[in-house]
Amino acid sequence: MKNKKILLVDGNSLIFRAYFASAYTGNILRTKSGIPTNAVYSFVNMLSSLLNENDYYDVVVAFDKGKKTFRHDKMPDYKAGRSKTPDELVTQFPIVREFLQSANIAYFEIENIEADDIIGSISQILFKDNEEYLVEILTSDKDMFQLINSNTKILIPKTGVSDLLVFGEEELLEKWSIKPEQIPDLKGIMGDPSDNIKGVSGIGEKGAINLLQKYFSLEEIYNNIDEITGATQKKLIDSKEIALLSKEIATIKTDVVIQNFKCEKINLNIDAIIEFLNKYEMFSLVKRLSNRVNNINQEEKIEYQVLKNWDDKLECEENAVIIELLDNNYHKSDVIGISISNQNGNFVLNLFEQGDLNLFNWNEKKEIDEKLQKFLSDPKKIKYFYDLKSGTTALKNLGYLVNLESITYDLMLVGYIKDSSLKSTFSNYLRSILPEIEVVEPEDVFGKGVKKTANIDPEVKFGYLAKKSNALLKSKQPAYDFLNSENLMNLYENIDLKFAKLLFKMEQAGVYVNREELALQTNQIKLKIEQLENEIKDLVSGHVTEDFNIASPKQLKELLYINLKLPDYHKGSTDKEALEKLSHLNPVIEKIMQHRKFSKLYSTYLKGFEKYIFSDNKVHTIYNQTLTTTGRLSSIEPNLQNISIRDEDQKAVRKIFSSEPGWEYQSYDYSQIELRVLAQIAPEKNMLEIFSQKRDIHTEAARLIYNIGANETVSYEMRRTAKIFNFGIIYGLSDFGLSNDLNISIPQAKKFIEAYFKSFPDILIYKEKLVNQGKVNGYVETITKRRRFIYELMSSNYQVRQFGERAALNAPIQGSAADILKLAMININECIIKNNLKSQMIAQIHDEIIFYVPSEESEIVKKIVKEEMQSALSKLFEIMNFDNKVLVELEVSSSQGNDWFELK
Questions:
Q1: Whose CA is closest to 704, among 439, 631, 689, 84?
Q2: How many domains does the chain have?
């Protein structure tokens, strides 16, 4: 029985990956004495994370020893041309070995032998004892594919070790259509530029695979060389000697004698590890690794009780609730399970005997658990959630109503406040708040994509759910400690938590879709697409076949650059930018762009919209509160924020959102909010003066840039240029970007930028101050002290550093504007409730808030919304307990109509 899983690690590969993952961002960690440790830190973190998340019996690491191996004797220029290893990395190799010694992890390095050969030989030893061992090899080197067998798989990291591609015999066959033992033959033919292995000149991967599928090996190819004809035969004959040598060089040895190798159960030395981490000042890893070691050496078992019905005697004052879903769209997803943890223990609700909890058939399977409903609706029973919108929506679809006011803690929201750059997952945010507890991603338990299922071993499922709710419970206090210590509790309680609850209401309210209008537009656009297809085929009739597919980039590339012989400015690209540069050369280009636009309109917003309409004739989008680093919302399934209002054809889609008789839509947004925020936080005197006197900011900016007097006229082009500057400053204006936007030279663009900063000097002073703060702290802050980590500021790469500087200016502006809008929405909602109005806030699209309003409430809603939006900045300072003075007035524009098309 194969019951012992062994991890073999390509040490050089993992160290290089660890180094460049952090070095790219400029994040070179050093001790106080100047010893670089970024590669060591990442190596230790990645390896311990992998061991923590998998049940390995043993782990062995292999290293190259020296730069010359037996392969150099046969091919002197083997691996020639590789970049020199950075000195900062070279010094860290011995420190990694020191860690492995401290941790009691075996590693091997042999003179004249590569790490590949050590791993190959160990895997062969373990394969021979095939009744006992399963082997996984962690490497970035695809040469290792030749070691795959029924007991051995290759793990290729995509990002860190949290996202691994697993290759066994089936996966390799799917990727390259060959067997593991054919990998050296493949390299013998196609070569390997990374190792300077030549192969057969002129035959690439596809040709090599075709030959191997027919003849199996390189030797058999040459034994049957007379069957092969034309240029391929000549290339093979001319390169025979180097091909056979290339195969030999690419073949991993599996017969190296490995002295003192034996398999033993992992037993990491925690005391020595802590001593090592303290020595190299990796203090943030001490607690994390201590807990990982305990888990690796002996997995902690979470005790839990499985209940068929909720028992109110188990309730506590504070309770962590996990609702695990099968799919990310919580409006439709089946529920995998429910777990609740509190001071009385961990409880998994097995409401259904088997299968997933189907949201649409729950009533057929089981009646509502009245005690569970009472618990969920009790305002005195405090609840903790991860993503309260997801959990409460799923429960509502099952028939349970949760008292939103009883939810006081949401790990997702605190994790986002702590570090908005993290990918929004339970394990990421848990790790940032409570690093000593690791909970794997759901995909590692229930599978990915279409293979994801709740029908797994009940013990595994229940144990995972209990561990997750237990971790959620434990994370609350350190999360609150963080918020209090950084003076961020007001931001969490008064903005993010309240806003999440408001978004739940908005998502539940949904947006009504006029199915007749949708069908009409769908049919019209379909006819338009067909007409364009016929016109395009008529224009290029002599250059394409009858089955020409306009939507195929490959066929379009062939048409444009080979058949029509149009200039190829973008290396074969057929994207929008490439087509626009060709539009004046051939009338078919404009038709192709139109076809592409209408096709997207059809597939995304018309025909594609149908699947999102629920039985109530509404779409219920999902607002992502923790996705963007700027603090802005995004919308998915469907994306309501992506319907263009600048293109008339696309804007027409907004007609499908129509109102019922006696109701209307009202839309409100801030005028130039980002520029007003910039004027406030810089503070920029000239901008503040322009806004206070209610003059046009773009016209006045043009006067300053072009040095035009008060009585002189500012041309349309001058104002347009100034507008590009004003918004360009916010979004990271660069001389290169400006030269493209204005179609001027880079030196001219630089002069314009100098003139702009001379016109608004406080912006440059503010930017320099922000950049300096960002370099010292690693982050910049919004008005509400929301942090944006900008690691690019420390990069040694000039372009990356320049991006960081632009981001440093952009983040406080975007983030502050987003928080102003959030608070305005919260306050408006509270006023609607206080006044017992029927009106509903139903959507937020960028800076625009859309309401669904009965005609009789039209005027009172207008009054409430404008007052709350205009006073949002001063109220923001109040709730954050800041004594800041409001320097700029916020202006609000509005519109109303019977459908969204009439808005604005």
A1: 689
A2: 3
Q: pLDDT at position 354, please? A: 47
Last residue of a domain, one of 176, 191, 226: 176
Rounded distance, CA 309 to CA 313, Å? 12
Give dist(CA 58, CA 295) in Å, integer: 14
The enclosing domain of 339 has a CATH number of: 3.30.420.10
- CB atoms near residue 308 (< 10 Å): 12
pLDDT at residue 213 is higher than 70: yes
C-alpha 755/C-alpha 317 separation (Å) is 62
- Domain extent at residue 651: 515-655
Scored b (16 or more CB within 10 A) or e, 113-132 reads: bbbbbbbbbbbbbbbeeeee
Place of tokens 């807990």: 291
What's the rounded Cα separation, in Å, for the pair 631 and 495? 11
Q: What is the pLDDT of residues 5-60, one digit of tens each?
A: 899 999 988 888 888 776 655 556 788 777 888 889 889 988 888 888 888 889 99
Q: At what angle do helices 872-879 and 858-870 cross, to 10 degrees?
A: 60
Measured CA to CA, the distance from residue 274 to residue 286 in angstroms comes to 6
- Tell me which H or E stretch contains 246: helix 240-250
Nearest residue to 681 (alpha-carbon basis) of 466, 543, 884: 884
Write down the pTM of the prediction.
0.70
Flag whether pLDDT at 174 surpasses 90: no
Least confident of 16-25, 197-206, 276-285, 588-597: 16-25
> Alpha-carbon distance 117 to 548, whole Å?
50
Provide CB contacts within 8 A for 347, sequence distance 6+: 304, 305, 306, 307, 310, 314, 339, 340, 341, 466
Name the average pLDDT for the chain.
88
CATH of the domain at 131: 3.40.50.1010
The reply to whether 311 and 430 lie within a common domain is: yes
- pLDDT the model gives residue 451: 81
CATH code where residue 542 lies:
1.20.1060.10
Q: Which two tokens stand for residue 583?
A: 């539009």
Compute how many other C-beta atoms are within 10 angstroms of the C-beta atom of residue 201: 12
Please state, in angstroms and as integers, the Cα–Cα distance from residue 866 to each residue in 828, 833, 840, following that order: 9, 17, 16
- Omega before 638 cis (within 30°)? yes
Among 20-24, 133-137, 210-214, which stretch is predicted with the lowest mean pLDDT?
20-24
The yes-or-no verdict on residue 363 having pLDDT over 50 is no
**Minimum mean pLDDT among 24-33, 378-387, 456-465, 846-855: which range?**
24-33
Q: Is pLDDT at 796 greater than 50 in this prediction? A: yes
CB-CB neighbours of 246 under 10 Å: 27
Confirm if 197 and 249 have CB atoms less than 8 A apart.
Answer: yes
Burial 213-244 (b: 16+ CB within 10 A, else e): eebebbeebeeeeeebeeebeebbeebeebbe
In whole angstroms, what is the distance from residue 640 CA to residue 630 CA? Answer: 19
- CA 663 – CA 660 distance, rounded (Å): 6
705 within 8 A of 733, measured Cβ to Cβ: no
What does the alpha-carbon distance between residue 434 and residue 431 come to, in Å, rounded to a whole number?
A: 5
Rounded to an integer, what distance in angstroms lies between the CA atom of residue 53 and that of residue 458? Answer: 19
CA distance 14 to 61: 10
d(CA 709, CA 703) in angstroms, rounded, equals 7
Question: CA-CA distance, 243 to 798, in Å (whole number)?
Answer: 42
